[in-house]
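quick one, 378 residues, struct below
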Amino acid sequence: MEPSRKIDEKCYPAGEGAFLSMHDMLAYFEKMGVMRVSDLHIKIGTPPAYRIDGDLVRLKGDVVTESIAEGLIFPLLGPKNIEALKRDMAVDCSYKYGTLQFRINAFMDSDGLAAAVRALGTEIPAPEKIGFPNTAWQDIVRRKQGLILFTGITGAGKSTTIASLINRINENRACRVITLEDPVEYIFPQKNSMISQREVGRDVDTFAHGLRSMMREDPDIIFVGEMRDAETVSLTLTAAETGHLVFSTLHTRDAVGSITRILDFFPHQKQDEVRNQLSLGLRYIISQKLIPRKDGSGRVVAMEILNSNYALANLIRKGKIEQMYSQMQVKTKDQPDERMITMERHLAELVKNGVIDLLEAQKWANDLKSFQDAMKND
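---
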């Protein structure tokens, strides 16, 4: 593997005598817009393919060889990430091109080098445009401390929602904001807040190392890209307890399951301590899914929101996790200690408002019976 390849090297035979560089391929995202063209896939043995309106569309040129793959992918990585790819067989990083930020995952498969390149718009949407089912976001952007946890599968829009909330704080408050991301996705402008964005693998070795050093960097607001292990979870909970507003993510499908997942990081004998930390530090869990719109014009967010009021904090402390869902079903009023909603209720609202199809909502519901009950209620 030779790292000395340039992004403007025209190494891909695109047909009819034309050759494309990775520079040309990234320019296509800017030309078409990231709402239409979201990803580029490169793999040895097949032509490159863009994901356009959700479907893979291959280029009409030659199949990718090892040399072509290196010529296209290596300029996005740089020497340090190429070494990580050799060592770990996969690497995540980011790349800025024009008005767009790209998230890169390069990896090895049975044929050799491959990559998934995802375009991220640099324009951060306003919280009003995200699709919150209630006004919980207004409480979040006013908060000074506590853990705000966003959950959902990859591609559910968690990073976009967090960026939207941090950017609103950035517009209205003079805070010191430090992020730890893998990789950096949205680039925050310097407005009222002072923001430092650190990328794992580029600016800091691990999330845990970054979090430990962050405690000496006087942050008001912390964004931890993902809670991946017990050490990161423990440091994140401590940061939320000690007067910081902390945003983070987990790959779980619902709010209640997120509590269980956090506890599962720790041995049984330590779980009482972690439950106590959670009951004190947790403020909101927001679980997201992106559901295809009924009219085919894209996707809409469906959310489950848990607001850790006194009653829910008590359930967490006592380990009565199974009782949390029923609290979320009834604490729905627009007042500070409520503002909760289940995924099933929000899906039902989207169906009743004609935004998504009934069958689509049934597919995405975590609990079909609860969804059917929500559809019957006004």
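The radius of gyration is 22 Å.
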